[in-house]
Design a protein that fits this description.
This protein has 150 residues and is of the alpha+beta class. The chain contains 4 helices and 5 strands, in the order E-H-H-H-E-E-H-E-E. Strand 4 and strand 5 (137-146) form a beta hairpin.
Amino acid sequence: MLGEPVLPAASFTIQANAVDVGRSSVWLASECVERDVPPDQILRLDLCLNEALANVINHGGPGALSCPVLLRLCVDRSGKHNSAVLSITDYGTSFDLDDYVPRPTPGSLLDAQPGGLGLKMMRTFSDDLDYCRVEDRNELRITVHWPHNV
């Protein structure tokens, strides 16, 4: 609700591996419930989290696999709408979202190829998707919004 105190940001550190992807989803759901994030918004964040971590694991290179990945969740109720921001910080290869050109959507299942749709999916399920490179780290921020009356 507008004007209610919001819990401080939550942080969780994982390794870039399949087991910790599952642990990160459990952590995210728990922290979101504690902060009264609606279930549909938790689902949107979790879909993006899983895709982002899959990209870190599959495309981040040795640095991503050997160094910790930091997750941070912030919920804000002070603006024109509520928002939750999930930040994912890793030590993988630099990858700028603005430079990525998705391949065209296939016209049929026969034309479809596996992979290559993760960023498109994250852009669809998030309200805002931001990337920056800070020193030797990638930071991806995934934001979802919902009205104050929910």
